[in-house]
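[retry 2/3] 3-dehydroquinate dehydratase: previous attempt timed out, resubmitting with same input.
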Amino acid sequence: MTRTKAVNVRGTEIGSGQPIICIPLISQSVDQLVKECKQAVSKKPDMIEWRADFFSELANLESVIVAARMIRGEVGEIPLLFTIRSIHEGGQPVERSEEEIVNLINAICRTGYIDLVDYEIRNDQQRIEGVLATAKQAGVYVVLSYHNFEKTPESSILIDKLRQAEQLGADMAKIAVMPQSNADVLQLLQAAQTTQEELSIPLIAISMGGLGAITRVAGWMFGSAVTFAIGNEESAPGQIPIADLRAMITQLQNASN
Ligand SMILES: O=C1C[C@@](O)(C(=O)O)C[C@@H](O)[C@@H]1O
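[retry 2/3] 3-dehydroquinate dehydratase: success.
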């Protein structure tokens, strides 16, 4: 059995067993983003995700860099994850080719404003390798991710996605899938539990929607390092407001100690 190595981002340990609560930012303009970010920071999340696929000026690199700088100015030392979720995996429609997206991700990595970047495992291996190389050089951690907003694929596929992320060289592996039944939720947790014992990188495993909400509260008990919570508005179904989520996690931790 390999022991998972926690990733240390600006002093925050991700994958140490203590769940990291992340608030996603989903505003469209710089002004709104700054407001949303101030509110998010006041709720003391462990991590902030900028879901840049919601940003209306994503086509303009200068605007993206300005927004990233403003967000960094607000978050201080809170780890910042940069995500352009594709429409294929539940993101917003973005009129950019994959090559343009990769160029944008690489440019943002080089600014030093972000700490982690999410990139989907479904992309070409060459592009993934490009993002990994640039991120590594810039000191940015890479989360290789897989999402399915329709269903929960069978267990072997879930486990494969997590393994594949590690094999490709990710610093973290992530899956978020939609359950149709309680059995699907158990399948996701089982995949996390099985994989955490063999992976050497932290993993994130989420079952979405109402049925999957329990995984946002208790996923850490099965090896999931990060849980996404609502700051102001949800970025995916089943997310829980951060104060409620934190209280529930604390209760669970107290009971299980
Ligand atoms: O991929 C994820 C996880 C997520 O989809 C969720 O279900 O909480 C929310 C997204 O913002 C994030 O990028």
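[retry 2/3] 3-dehydroquinate dehydratase: The mean pLDDT is 96.
[retry 2/3] clearing retry counter.
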